[in-house]
Fold this protein.
Amino acid sequence: MKEFFAKNSVLKVISFIVAIILWFYIIIIVDPPVTKSIDNVPIKYVSQESLTEQNLAVESISAEYVDVKISGSRNKLAGIDENDILATVNLEGISGVGERNIAVNLSSPYESSVTISKQTPGSVNIIIEKMISETKRVTVNKIGQVADEYIYGTIVAEPSKVILKGSETVLSQISSVCVDLDFNGENEDIEIESSLYFTGKNGKKIPKDDVIYQNVIVNTDFVKVICPVKKVKEVPVEISLDSSTKKDYETNPKTVAIYSEFPDFDLEAIEAIYTVPVDRSSLANGLVVSLVIPEGVKIKGNIQNVALIKK
């Protein structure tokens, strides 16, 4: 028999083709049922507003995720993941503080062809507390730098404060409410709308899928961040003294970076920043004198005075 097949390669090819056809028939045409495990399906709340109306809030939940086993045809199950399974707990009908055991309900857009055969856990314990409100200032975290030879001005967040609502236990875990401002080498004024995020007591960002986000109500999800970006120019500081005397002194710092918040201001017209007139009789090493700052000009670092240093 072996010699027969060894000498008949055509039969080998035919056998291989028949095997492939049978495999396609079973997998695609017959499409046999299979079982698939999907872990870490996030649990979401339903009818949370019913708690809010009673000034109640979720303090904690015994499990944030549910593991699921689903059964169905191989083709249907192939493209299903944790994003296609909805796990919910219904908060409607809860009244008063305390602990409740609530069933976890599962649903899928493919319910007619997919069966949920197992879920862990089947229910969760939820602790309900009185709701409180807290007002927190929005912190703008600066990322990167503006373009070379530019400076950023006063950053404004609108709104500058937000109201958080939740249980006292949950709100105590939130240290700050933040938005990010990425300078990204900008050389023009920045105005962006940025989404809020929370940081914990350890200073680290709280992930969006953390249960805290479900247990906190914020009066806004986005904040407008406005930041002026202005060109700077480095100019020398000149001592207001007669030329025969000032050659013996220099200023500390020797130069300052100037800018203007007026868009049409001619910064190039400013060649130097001068000190107030200095009396020769008061000259001393380390003498601090004020600067005469032209109208419309600002100095980086808000420098107002310089020291006179004897050469």
